[in-house]
Amino acid sequence: MTQRVLTGITTTGTLHLGNYVGAIRPAIAASREAGVESFFFMADYHALIKCDEPDRIARSRLEIAATWLAAGLDPARVVFYRQSDIPEIPELTWLLTCVTSKGQMNRAHAYKAAVDANLAEGEDADAGVTMGLYSYPILMAADILMFNAHRVPVGKDQVQHIEMARDVAQRFNHLFGRGREFFVLPEAQTDAEMELLPGLDGRKMSKSYDNVVPLFEGGAKALREAIARIVTDSRLPGEPKEPEGQALVTIFDAFATPEQRAAFRAELRAGLAWGEAKQRLFDQIESQIGPMRARYAELMAHPEKIEAILQEGAAKARALAAPLLAELRAAVGLSRFSAVPQAAAKVVKADKPALPVFKQYREADGRFYFKLNAADGSLLLQSEGFEAGREAGQWVARLKREGAAALDQAPVQRAEGLAPEALQAALAALQEAEQG
Length: 436
Ligand code: TRP
Prior knowledge:
There is one protein chain. By secondary structure, this protein is an alpha/beta fold. 52% of the residues lie in helices and 11% in strands. The chain is built from 17 helices and nine strands. 34% of the residues are buried.
């Protein structure tokens, strides 16, 4: 079964080398694996929680989009979008908000940290805390559950949020699923790699420590200047140096093959000057980042190209989000009114739009098939051939029960020229009828 992997980056700033090594590079590598379907997005609704400078948010989301693309993301292979282009996400956020217990949000790390800081300063506990900050884990749960992601690669600080997403998913499934699981329960994936890159001073590379190496910002010059500021020990040229534990070496490792790593260590032990070592590090990083920086500059000069890519991504994302949200709305009692049931049942039946029909049959090749026809007889869906009639029957039952959600796995093909939404709508209608 395909594994859905989803991750978002909050669009409040400029990315640094640590973001590239820890998040972007491994995410793109994973998106190229077989059996993985990746969802990458700019978390720009999240940005509003931390930042009230519109220009900064606008610039950051463009930069982060360009960075993903420049780093080699193939938008045809993944679903790549801006959170704020998917209105289904805030809508789902509200449905989830209504089943999330306040007590659990009180325990969220980001909120608790704000409260602790306030109390330490003798302020009111909630001073400066917005409802956005407070409810942030619910928005994040919606990001994840909207696309039924199995795996969410995140830093350790985000693990609690994934657990909260699981909890709220379970509660929603339990309250409204009537035996159905609307949501996959996501798992956090914390790679050692996500934490690994040290900054200039040896602590974890982070904006808040002011120890970052910029990724593209400022060009090769800024890269060189940052590397010059990496803290080393005071051993002189010619003196043997212990490479292990040096931030400079760990950063080098992130861009080097095992052979290059061994050679660099050997040179340091043989007395290579730190200044020389910094030049090696610069060359090593620049050989990989330089070509990306050129693509980045090209993309930043053409925001309209990025926009077009994101619009396509949003269309792909919404084609998945809209049918699920329609089901969720119905499950909580927000479906459209339709003609009166029971009393006028007979009349109603005649008035109802005729449903599509599954037909099962056997071909001359001896195999069993099924197809789905619209009420007017036109073809919507065609199955492959099965050895056993029972197998065909089971798929028909499952499609009726689960609707479009089963399509990914079912051995079927959409009729040529038919819009995916039309098929989804037909299956949703059948599913609704099935559930009575
Ligand atoms: N909150 C995450 C962070 O600050 C970003 C994010 C938002 C995210 N929505 C997400 C990450 C969904 C993974 C999945 O790092």
